[in-house]
Amino acid sequence: MEISLCMIAKNEEDVIARCISSIKDIVDEIIIVDTGSTDNTIEIAKNLGASVYEFEWIDDFSKARNYSFSKATKDYILWLDADDILNPDDIDKFRELKSNVNNLVDSVTMNYVLTVGPKGEFISSLRRNRLVKRERNFKWIGQVHEYLEVYGNIINSDINVIHKKEKAYTNRNLRIYEESIAQGKELSTRDKYYYANELCDNGRYDEAIEQYIKFINTNEGWVEDIKGACSKIADCYSYKKDSENELRYLFKSFEYDVPRADFCCRLGHKFFGENKLDIAIYWYNQAINAAPKEGNLSLINHDTYTFTPWVQLCVCHDRKGDMKLAIECNEMAAKYKPDSPAVKHNREYFKTKIQ
Length: 355
Prior knowledge:
Elements: E1 3-9, H1 16-23, E2 29-34, H2 41-47, E3 51-54, H3 61-70, E4 76-79, E5 84-85, H4 88-100, E6 107-116, E7 122-133, E8 139-141, E9 147-149, E10 154-163, H5 172-182, H6 189-201, H7 205-217, H8 223-239, H9 243-252, H10 261-273, H11 277-289, E11 300-301, H12 307-319, H13 323-336, H14 341-354
Parallel strand pairs: 1-2, 1-4, 2-3, 6-10
Antiparallel strand pairs: 4-7, 5-10, 6-7, 7-11, 8-9
Helix pairs in contact: 6-7, 6-8, 7-8, 8-9, 10-11, 10-12, 11-12, 12-13, 13-14
GO molecular function, one term: transferase activity
Organism: Romboutsia weinsteinii
InterPro entries: Glyco_trans_2-like (IPR001173), Nucleotide-diphossugar_trans (IPR029044), TPR-like_helical_dom_sf (IPR011990), TPR_rpt (IPR019734)
């Protein structure tokens, strides 16, 4: 297998060398499509062996990414963003994959790690179709929050791509959506969901709720996005101090699938805050008993399956007067995060209480 690395970039001089340096030994060509850099991005990329093509930015990520794919010449295409990296352990896994993968494979998914803890532990991640067969001519779709439409023989790898975002959040995506709407363009079902996300992230909660509900009512969305919409609506109502509707939409997510651990933890937190300890304990236990779906492309908050419910169960059982069980729960939490300040604090607290 020979691999083309394809990236789009603009004003990424602070991170692009880090990205390319982490992956350059595993790829056979590097394609950078620059969408209007005014810094040293192009020079840095060229010095690291990249072929750089300029592309006029037209507020459309898919068109830029498809242009980058059109310049690839190798068997497979790997896509990254400039603020992504691969750690040495994952480069070793990638090298093994490159040597052994069957050429009938159309796509290889990899974990996309969005948040990393202080000890390097994964906090949140999702799967992406990351390495695709060039001759299949897969296309990117969507002006914003674009996705690669992939089908065929897809395999899941345990390779991790780490996202190390450095730039501050902006309203760029919201502006693109609203300009499209102003021009009379109809948003796709998927874009309705992401438009609502942008509204929520910009603090426009009432508008966001309206758009999320419109998205859900299409009955055409991906089930993971529908569950995400329920979660975000609950967030919006939480910001608005409307606990009744917050709870309503947390439970509404159960209409579409079995309870996910993050929803269970949120319910646990809510009932804990109301001092309804038995109900809180029930939901934290449900979180522990849940399990992420293998190969699912949805966002996974890893702590909500392990550390978070255990450390919260510790507090719940202590409040109920069962110190023995509380200590056991704290030690279970310690298995996942032994250096956690919460775990250490609880140990000292119980030590003092016993004395």
